[in-house]
Amino acid sequence: MAAIIIILVVWAALAVVGFAFKGLLWLAIIAVILFVGTLAFAIARRSNNRKA
């Protein structure tokens, strides 16, 4: 679980950097997409562990 939290923090930091610099807007878009994907993966994995 700690690895997922670290990855989420990295994606959030990349999004902030991307939004801070106009030339790096593409970085922010990719970071937001990866953040949402990682969060969905973590939630799905957590709910599967509770069912077992």
Strand content: under 5%
Q: Nearest-angstrom radius of gyration?
A: 13 Å
Describe the sheet with the most strands: none
Tally of DSSP β-strands: 0
Class from helix and strand fractions: mainly alpha
Termini separation comes to: 17 Å
Helix content, binned percent = over 70%
Unreliable segments of 5+ consecutive residues: none
Number of helices: 2
Instruction: Summarize model confidence as the mean pLDDT.
Output: 88
N to C succession of SSEs: HH
Explain the layout of strands and helices.
Layout: H1 2-20, H2 25-51
Concise description?
With 52 residues, the protein is mainly α. It has two helices and no strands.
Features:
mainly alpha; 0% strand
Q: Would you kindly provide a written description of the structure presented here, covering whatever features stand out?
A:
With about 50 residues, the chain is mainly alpha-helical. It has one domain (about 1-45). It contains 2 helices and no strands. It has helices at about 1-20, 25-50. It is elongated and about 45 Å long.
